[in-house]
Amino acid sequence: MSDVEVRAFSFIKALFDARGWPTPLIYKLENSCTAGELAKSLSIPDDLVEAVFINGKVFRPGEGVVKPGDRVAFIPPGTPGPYRLLLGIARPAGSGGDQ
Fold first, then answer.
1. How many domains does the chain have?
2. Which pLDDT tens digit goes with each residue over 59-91?
3. Does a structural domain hold residue 23?
4. Burial of 41 (0-12, 13-18, 19+ CB in 10 A)
5. pTM value > 0.90
6. pLDDT at position 99, please?
7. What is the CATH number of the domain that holds 40?
8. Backbone phi and psi for residue 9, each to the nearest 5 degrees, phi listed first
9. Which residues contact 88 (CB under 8 A, 6 or more apart)?
10. CA 84 → CA 58, 67, 76, distances in Å?
């Protein structure tokens, strides 16, 4: 299987809608790539992507590897504070991560 299921939230979802893309977008992916590379291939600006879910796990765009058959969701900046912690986008103070 070479398809990746791609979803988007908030500002990124608005971008998908403006382009007439369905939700989820089924995208052909022949080889593994980072989530950031996938975003670039979809012409999603870097500043619109803060985090990416790949098969239910959160990653920074340059860290997560997307493989054919994966489910991906792009998360924009501005996710409310408590959800940032719950989703794993931010880490609690003192944990060595960002706030």
1. 1
2. 988 888 999 999 999 988 876 666 667 677 765
3. yes
4. exposed
5. no
6. 44
7. 3.10.20.30
8. -125, 155
9. 51, 57, 58
10. 11, 25, 11
